[in-house]
Amino acid sequence: MISQVQKLVFMGEESKMLKVTFSNGIESCVPKDEANKDYQEILQWVADGNTIQEAD
Amino acid sequence: MAFATIDLTKGITGVLPSANATYSTPRLNAQPLIINGDMAVAQRATSTSSITSDGFHTLDRFQTHISSLGTWTQSQDTDVPSGQGFANSLKMDCTTADASPSAGDFCIIRTKFEGQDLQLFKKGTSNAEKFTLAFWVKSSKTGTHIVELFDIDNSRTVSQAYTISSADTWEKKVVNFPADTTGAFGDDNGRSLDIQFWLGTGTTYSSGTLQTTWAGQTNANRAVGQVNLADSTSNNWYITGLQLEVGEYTSSTLPPFQHESYEDNLQRCQRYYEKSFEQGTTPAAGTSAPDGRVFGSWDGASARTQIDFATTKRASPTVTVYRGSNAGSGTATGTANFIYSGAWNNHTCVSNHADDSQVSLTGSTSNFTTNGAFVADMNFTADAEL
Questions:
Q1: ipTM score of the complex?
Q2: Is pTM beyond 0.90 here?
Q3: Distance CA B66, CA B251 (A)
């Protein structure tokens, strides 16, 4: 279960990775690859009305 | 049935293996289609309790798929069928019962396949092959159990019942599934087929007629007759020796289980999940690490390193960084310990890039110095499961 998703920026460019916090507290980096099951879950999470936060 | 023997005076006698089955695609010397079917590899953990949600909790390639049906402990167990060459099994132990499931409740143990590994079944063509699934199972709960093939690409399913005749006794099951001339598996790295072992369900998935030939997904027909393994905390269910074959076999004609070396098995599992932790160590923050990963800083604020994976991944993986044991405070994941000014310090460390071959990690703190190198205390996991 996803709790929060945030964009990552490195050297002024938005990364192809997203920082995700899962409901168990684990923080992971998920690639924007539609073959990745966690990215598939993010896409569904967004489709359900949730919003990806901008980078810090 | 005895296979053929060659007598120099009588020639070949007996029945050749190819006459024992209906398959048309021999897989001589090929790797087993089911990865980790002997339950030898458990990179994530060897035991996980309080399971109420989906996840790859212990054994590699085997996922628990659950919705509000009991609470479980899953473990890699040493209870195995005697004399079969297996050392491990997957055990599900019900720890909180649910004797009256709601309609949509279920608990499933499943393993998933990439479509490109299934082309030999020729599904969706006029030459489509049958499927034979064999496995050893043991349970305190006798009666009818359901195993299902789920074609993800085409939303088609087929189920078969198997019977556990004697409580707490290992039994070998050989289950045949028909061929399907409709709906091809995608020839790619995507999820195309699940083998699903039902442990219990409500009426949503069991109120119809068991669908024993391939057809479009009809939930009511998927697990008809399945006993409820969640109805008592005395219940448990073990499985090992999973074997998927192309064609139709019986218990007499089934080829022997193809035992792999642990190394080969682990390498195949690592296509889907890899960790820098030692095998036998459950990934967690605060675990001892080699303290030898070197990050280089180009701007005094960020430092980066690159890691090549042991095995090419199925797809770009999800990367989780765990701080090591040298600094006890700070967030458990998404951080690493870096040494400077004579001490270990915990700072943010995330993946800025990951593909099927490598990952790049970036640590962040204003304590870095431009063009400096910093030793890190950390571990990581890379997850490319289906």
A1: 0.98
A2: yes
A3: 31
